[in-house]
Amino acid sequence: MSILEKLQNINRRYIYLLAWVFVLFPLLFPLGLPVPIGRESKAWKEYIENIPSDSTIIVTMDYGVSGMPELYPMTVATMHHLWTDTASKNFKIIVVATWNQGPLVFDTLLDQMNPASTYGVVYGEDWIELGWIPGSETGMAALATDMWSQTPKDFLENRPLSEYPIMENIKTAEDIDLVVSFETGTPGLPEWLRQWNTPYGTPFIVGCIGVSVPGMAPYLASGQLAALMPGLTASGEYELLIGRPGLAVSGLDAVSMSHLLVVLLVVVGNIAFFASKSKGVN
Amino acid sequence: MSEKLRSIEIPIIITAICTLLQVIPYYLDIQFLDNASAIERDWMLLIVNMAVFVGVISIGQVHGRKIMRRAKNWEYSIILMVAMIIMALTGLPIESIGLGLDNTIYNFLFIQVLTPLGSTMYSILAFFITSAAYRAFRARNIEAALILVSGTIVVMSNAPLFTSSLPFLITWKNWIFDVPNTATMRGVMMGAALGAIALAVRTLMGIERGYLRGGGTD
């Protein structure tokens, strides 16, 4: 096998090894590359900043532990932003999950952020966690028509919703001003839109993993989706915008290096392909 | 009588009624149908919750059989069964005896085992995608060249390493996202929606019976 043929068919094990080195290197030796801010992260920040006072917001954890590497940083940054503004803008935040591991992921976030001491928000008055909503799209529809019967008790303290002042005037989707969804797949935005946006007009903003981004484009263009946080790079930009560099920023160098490897391999493969073609090998 | 009760038409009629109870209130505001639709949704949620137990039984059957027969990789099935039983028992919401979400073993399994395993499964994608991109992005013809160029632009535009020195990549990526991608995805979505409508109509009319009798055609 000639060198040109070998370059067109590099053993996948060497590629895996290279990928491992390219990701590990910047994690051990951070490069500190500059991070240009994209339009998505800017729009996300502006949208959250412009949420009207006294709004009631649902944050839905539509992912499990497998989605954490990409979605957890943006969830932390967004909750930081929302809870920081809660006192001045009197937000009411309701946390739900349509993925069964969502509440467990949110538990991890609570352990890390400790909202009561860090932001001074009071559980049951400023925010509440209702837990997992089973039934996928059916559960979303049921939640829209009657939140109290769908989740009679909260998730953290397991007490009836009637004991929490925050839930006093919140019964149906008509009482919700915004849904913030972090999601890796189905159920996700299309199901939420069908059951909440179309019948009740509830606005949505979504943070999703990179592979889901192309599928979000039509909803963004139609205005059904008000803002989109597409993957880890945008999360890093958002963390910088709100002045709270965190998990996403620390991963951006690794993103850069892994993408560099992809581009290098593509270039090498194509050069070898065309060189061998010109020599009549292929 | 028993023949009539076993008739294939009965489940078809039940399916049609249940479907229409969800479809009609979506478009028309009729209080009676709204209430019936809400009750049906509650029933559906109860069935979904019961299905969790069916899942547990199914896993037990599949892996139990594997262990009994010493089938290939049966050792992993033991780990799965033990982890499932421990997690289910320690996670039971009985706080008075130390079980539930605050249980130490449950938390250890979730934070130290499940979370890193889940992250690892997702992270392995990076290796596969790198290898797949190297093999797929090759300009063998015009169509492949278009995919190569647009794919490479999108990859580069997602990495600060490139966008910090080549800011025009962001503009190019935005155009790809806004124009060809949106147009294509709209086409895909509309096609899928029309297909779903056709399937729903066939199911309602009893023509599509794949969901009955284990996929039979009667």
Provide the fold topology.
The complex is a heterodimer of chains A (282) and B (218).
Chain A lengths: L2 H6 L3 H17 L10 H11 L6 E7 L5 H22 L2 E6 L4 H12 L1 H5 L7 E6 L3 H10 L1 H4 L27 E6 L5 H12 L3 E5 L4 H10 L2 E6 H11 L5 H32 L4
Chain B lengths: L1 H4 L3 H19 L3 H38 L5 H17 L13 H33 L5 H16 L2 H4 L4 H37 L14
Helix pairs in contact in B: 2-3, 3-4, 4-5, 6-8
Q: Order of strands in the sheet with the most strands of chain A?
A: 3-2-1-4-5-6
Q: Low-confidence runs of chain A (pLDDT<50, min 5 residues)?
A: none
Q: What structural class results from the helix and strand content of chain B?
A: mainly alpha
**Proportion of beta-strand residues of chain A:** 5-15%
CA gyration radius of chain B, whole angstroms: 26 Å
Number of helices of chain B: 8
Domain count of chain B, please report it: 2
Mean pLDDT of chain A: 94
* Proportion in helices of chain A: 40-55%
Oligomeric composition of the shown chains: heterodimer
**Distance N terminus to C terminus of chain B?**
20 Å
From N to C, what is the helix and strand string of chain B?
HHHHHHHH
Strand percentage of chain B lies at: under 5%
Question: Which protein chains are joined by the largest interface, and how many residues does each one contribute?
Answer: A-B, 65 and 54 residues
Number of helices of chain A: 12
SS class of chain A: alpha/beta
Radius of gyration of chain A using CA atoms only: 22 Å
Task: Tell me, rounded to a whole number, the average pLDDT of chain B.
Answer: 90
Run of helices and strands of chain A: HHHEHEHHEHHEHEHEHH
Number of strands of chain A: 6
Key phrases:
heterodimer; A: 282 residues; alpha/beta; 6 strands; B: 218 residues; mainly alpha; 2 domains; 77% helix
Structural account:
The complex is a heterodimer of chains A (282) and B (218). Chain A is an alpha/beta fold. Chain A has helices spanning 3-8, 12-28, 39-49, 68-89, 102-113, 115-119, 136-145, 147-150, 189-200, 213-222, 231-241, 247-278, and strands at 56-62, 92-97, 127-132, 178-183, 204-208, 225-230. Chain A has a 6-stranded parallel sheet with strand order 3-2-1-4-5-6, sandwiched between helices. In chain A, strand 5 (204-208), helix 10 and strand 6 (225-230) form a beta-alpha-beta unit. In chain A, helix 2 (12-28) runs antiparallel to helix 12. Chain A is elongated. With 218 residues, chain B is mainly alpha-helical. Chain B folds into 2 domains: 8-90, no CATH class; 126-218. Helix content of chain B is 77%, strand content 0%. Chain B is built from 8 helices and no strands. Chain B has helices at residues 2-5, 9-27, 31-68, 74-90, 104-136, 142-157, 160-163, 168-204. In chain B, helix 2 packs across helix 3, helix 4 packs across helix 5 and helix 6 crosses helix 8 (168-204). The longest helix of chain B has 38 residues, at 31-68. Chain B is extended, with a radius of gyration of 26 Å. Chain B starts with a helix and ends in a 14-residue tail after the last helix.
